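PROTOCOL LOG
Step 1. Enter all chains and additional molecules of the complex.
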Amino acid sequence: MVTTQAISVQAVSKIYPGGVHALADVSLEVRQGEWIAIMGPSGSGKTTLLSILNGLDKPTSGQIHVLGTDTHGFGPDDWAVFRRENIGLVFQQFHLIPYLTAVENVMLAQYYHSMPVREQALAALERVQLAGRAHHLPSQLSGGEQQRVCIARALINDPKVVLADEPTGNLDEENEARVLDVFRSLHAEGKTLVVVTHDPEIGCAGERIVALSHGKVSKDTRTAEGERLLSARAVTGEVREHLR
Amino acid sequence: MLAHMIRHSLVKSARVTAWSLATLTASAALATIFFAVSIDVGETMTRSLRSLGANAVAHAGQRHDGPGAPATTTTADWERVRELAKARRADLVELQLRVAMLQGAPTAIVTADSAGLARMTPYWAMNGVRAVAEDECAMGRKLAQATGASIGKSVEVHFEGAARSERYRVTGIFDSGDEDEGRIFVTRAVRPGDARFSYALVSVPGGEPDIDALNASLAAGAAGVELTPLRQVLHGEQAVVGKINLLTGITLLAVLLLSSVGVTAAVLSRVIERRKELALLQAIGARRRSVVAFLLSEGASVGIAAALVGYAVGTGLSQVIVRQVFGVSVTPHVAPFLAATVVSVVIATLAAGIGARRALRMGTAVLLKGE
Amino acid sequence: MLSRILLDSLTRRLSRKALSVVAVWIGLTLVLALLSLSVDVGDKMNLELRSFGANITVEPLASAIPVDVGGHRLAAEAVPSYLDEAELLKLKAITFFWRNNILGVAPRIRAAGQAKGQDVDLVGVWFDQPVATGSEPLVTGARQVYTHWAVQGAWPTRAEECLVGSAAARRLALAPGDTLALAVGREQLTLKVTGILTSGDKDDGSIIAPLSAVQGLVHAPGKVSSADVSALTTPDNKLAEKYRQDPKALTPDEYDRWYCTPYPGAVAKQVQELIPGSAARVVRRVSETQGMVFSRTKGLIVLLAALTFVVCSLSVTGILTAAVLERRPEMALLQAIGARRADVLVLFLAEMAILGIAGGVLAALTGPLLGRWLVSLVFGSTAELHLAVVLVAPFLGLGLAWAGGLWPVWQAVNQDAAQVLHGN
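Step 2. Run joint prediction.
Step 3. Record the structure below.
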């Protein structure tokens, strides 16, 4: 069993100009392959934490290691390169390029990673059940479809970590379920998932819920699913031990 | 409440505000420069040309009545002429012409104040220097060639009527290309008894209409003196100034058009950037009218600030430019300020209005939903 | 992929791109129009100085100096001296170096005569005289050279017609349509008055008749007393002044340069060399005014073109900036999916380059045309199309687009991407 930490946050604080303490001395460890949900009321700092994890924002103090890499001293371009190699981002507002088709939006991520391959991009869309809409512009897609394009784009470069910010915030129940399905399969593949949400249903689908309040970790609990998986892992471990 | 909102909205989006303010200010400044330079480019040019001396000659009246015995003692009231000229800011230099014999040929000897003559005839190309002292004279090149005179030599002129001679040392020989080239210019005062013919060189600010006006006041003042514009030069000036006015007019129009486009773009982008905010205002119950009023007053306040700063900057710059190009200073005008105001305030407000229309047309719901 | 993005961005949002292209197009059209105008303005303005009329007078070298004041001849010249009329034709002959700079020639012959029992000054001039030149014949004379002459009535068209100066007309009580009996010595001539002349100089006191008529009256066929020449010249500068102070002070090189530059003095000198027994003088009041007007005008046009360019750049920059600011979320997203800042910059600058060049190419088509129209509007003559102006247009468009795009894009890629993606 691999126990390396996918994400390690140590004593991170973020103070915005004007003295707003968005994060105060937050520490957090995320195992590789773990699926955690960050929850909390508005203004608790969950989005700030995610922005710091993906490098779009910088902490005021503290250290962050992602996949064993110390990100201290990373500039915007170092982060950009790091993201395209290792991190997939899913946004609440999807952020698709409006003048590119679904498949082109996916290929764009390939382009910055290595080189665009249409077949792979189509396959990624297939995976989110959007093969039929590959050549539509974002404006011709529903919200749920746009979100799945966004997920396909996040996955195209096979990242080890997927960071999602309110991925179902703009979706109806049916689409929410679909997105959850995709996340489950990602989890099953062993990807590390960090999902910011205030929807308990999404939160409970993961293994662990980290609750933030006023910029601090107020609770860090294992979900029922987490317990089940933990015991399952323990059982597997025992069996393995036993078989040996 | 509205004022409070405007103030805060301007301060909060300081960077965007700074950008549109900069664009507006630059446009206002340019409009000011253009107006200041072009509004009286004709007059500026004319004033600039006045450094070239006289543009009219004053003679005793009825002087064109033909050859024959000229009026050597004039009835003209020169004192009165000087006053009238002064009232119209015209520069007047009086000259006394006597006929004397030089090497057996009749020659014109002109007496004039040295500094005044230099002001009226700066276009003379001098070799040597102008006459200053009583026994000095400047001689036209044509006369010098005819008599073999040269700088440093003395000439003796004989007044046959008075049976008297005067001696002058030639200090300068000049080219003028007109009848002055056949004359001798001295500073020594004319003896009261000498037969003379008085005339004056006049530099009238402005063009032919101003000369006509001065002429009219001379006629009304019964000075017995008539002013003749040097039409050849004036005509040329007028033709060129007309072209320049047309040219600056066209350019001014183009520049106003362009800066309007630029300002509109700047203001529009500002409004579009804040579509969401506007949609929100509507969502919380603001009527369309008050949203538009908000945008318009915001546009106008940015515009006024830009107009003031732009006018100040533009006026300063146009002074420098006009001095560079024309060598004269410009009198500050109201028109450039109006231009600056129109460019920045009117256009900013107008653009804000267009922006408001566009923003409101987009639909509140769509905007609030996000993309 | 890059080209794909560019193509899609350009084709799928055509109306938005069109605004930027149109902005560059309009802006550059104006700039190019003024540019081609200012390329031409030197020549055109110089031609415009024609309206100053004669700036060189040619007289017989031996001419005695009359004493005139305000049209009064205080002391008459003893023996009249003349130039040959035929010699003046050489001014436009193919052999004369400055023939193209000679815009007009107006010979004059003076005579004193009697009319209605009073003494009058009689002046003979050319009216509309055709002069053979290398190419097309030039029609010249008083009408073309004395542009400041205002004639009330009509210009004479036949040999037995004349103009009467305004002062002379008053004195002799003449009006257009009257006939006038002239006597010079024992010669008699009857002329029909076609118009009253106002010139503002001594011609106002004279009768202006055709040259040949006056030549006949004074028994001097083919002779003229003087000639006024209107020449295209450049303003005097240090070299011209140096020559004037002392012609011998010039080095041979400087002398050649002076001789081959149409300074008023240089043209006058060569006119004098061309016409035997003549003395050509620069009318300095006119030439100095011309020089000043010319240099001021040139300065003004350069200023106008420069200011217009600044305004154009500013406006176009404003529009492009607006276009860039609208797309900040797009730039933030590209960074989020792994584009470095330079990648984003390259993408946007490439797009702006295409827009700028497109606008520039369009402006290359319309700008010179507008310039031509302006030239014909202002100067009433046609301008040449300047290839350089056309060629420089796409580059100006590119420069303008980049100047307008570089700063806002760089600002945008360095912005707080997290904030932008979050919709703030």
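Step 4. Note key features.
DSSP finds 14 helices and 16 strands in chain C.
The CA atoms of residues 40 and 248 of chain C lie 36 Å apart.
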